[in-house]
Amino acid sequence: MEQPQTDVNQAPQERGAQEQCCYDDLRRARWPAGVSCPRCSGQQVTLHATSAGSHRRRYRCNACARTFTDLTDTLLARTNLPLSTWWLYLRLAKQGLGTAEAARRLGVKWDTVAHMQRRLDRALTRPAGMIRRLMERL
Fold first, then answer.
1. Nearest to 67 by CA among 83, 49, 84, 89
2. Which end of the chain is more exposed for a tag (fewer CB within 10 A), N or C?
3. pLDDT class for 17, splitting at 50, 70, 90?
4. Which stretches does DSSP call E strand in 1-115?
5. How many whole angstroms separate alpha carbon 11 and alpha carbon 1?
6. In this predicted structure, what is the pLDDT of residue 113?
7. Among the listed residues 2, 3, 1, 10, the one whose alpha carbon sits nearest the alpha carbon of residue 84
8. Could you tell me the pTM of the whole model?
9. Is 19 left (phi over 0), alpha (psi -120 to 50) or beta?
10. E-strand spans in 1-138?
């Protein structure tokens, strides 16, 4: 039987480096001209905090005083899956793999992949944005 193609067999340092690369790619795709506020589109943004044990950053908009993270207002917001799992899923979805096969390769349950597919479908119905740019890079 084939092993799941996820990062579960990697050392913690390797998984951390892979997550960091995913967050870096996300930031480049989401904000090609620099970080901006998702609420007011303000460009005056400062780094507010970093999450302990995570590569996610929290920013503060100086115009509207709201805070937001790398994942705010994306299909990746409010998910417990590592970003590297989402990246692998996006590659598999681009290849046209079915739900059951994608679940097997990711090492997750079928309904988790179905939920990921629904989120991706909703994101792809929006005007061209971050997800389309990410899909082009994969």
1. 49
2. N
3. confident
4. 45-50, 57-61, 67-69
5. 22
6. 96
7. 10
8. 0.74
9. alpha
10. 45-50, 57-61, 67-69
